[in-house]
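User: I'm putting together notes for a lab meeting next week and I want to include a structural view of one of the chains we've been expressing. I don't have a solved structure, so I'd like a prediction I can at least talk through. The sequence is below, exactly as it appears in our construct file.
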Amino acid sequence: MAAATESSPAGSAAAASRAWEWEGKVVSPVAAATADEAWALLSDFLAFHRWHPRVAACRLASGTPRLPGCVRYCEGTAPPPGAGGAPAPPPDWAHETLLEYDAERRFFHYEMNDNNMGFGLFFATFRVVPAAAAAGTGCELRWEFQCEPVRGSAREALVARLQAGLDGMAARVRDHVLAARDAAAAGTPAVAPAAGELLKLDNYIAV
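Assistant: Thanks for the context. Below is the predicted structure for the 207-residue chain, given as structure tokens.
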């Protein structure tokens, strides 16, 4: 598939020209999978809920899948009831716009829009890259972010949240790739897990 690299002028300009107070990157290795194997599973902008342990739903809100400008709706799992039997708060949710998609270089870049988690401007890039020669075989999942500070929170909390989610995705990719290889050896097909089959790390969405 040819790379789709057209991006939103407003979103790209905001991300490129601004000096961000919060920015960073988290990385999770997947020794069992090649970059191509991992990208084949994670490249679908609308399949976040199949691989991320904190996401219960991810669906197209508008636009054409994998084309810049499409918008996805993501929702976290339902939080538990509050203390004393108080009703549970609503699950986290966000609309996110795909700004750039490059299959050849295995990455997509997106912007968070309206959400109930307190985020203002937020841009992220998800990448799958071959492991460095010194690290041996396999690949790395990388999540880069640039955003405004979130009131009442700390940058370290966001980094920890992203890292936990990415580690969960790496584990799901590893398990699926190994299962697929075993199935191929046995002559039976392997399928991607459904969202409900994933063990949730906690009740909050990661971005």
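A couple of points you could mention at the meeting. The beta strands are 22-30, 55-62, 71-76, 93-102, 107-115, 122-130, 139-147. Confidence is low (pLDDT under 50) at residues 195-205.

User: Perfect, that's what I needed.
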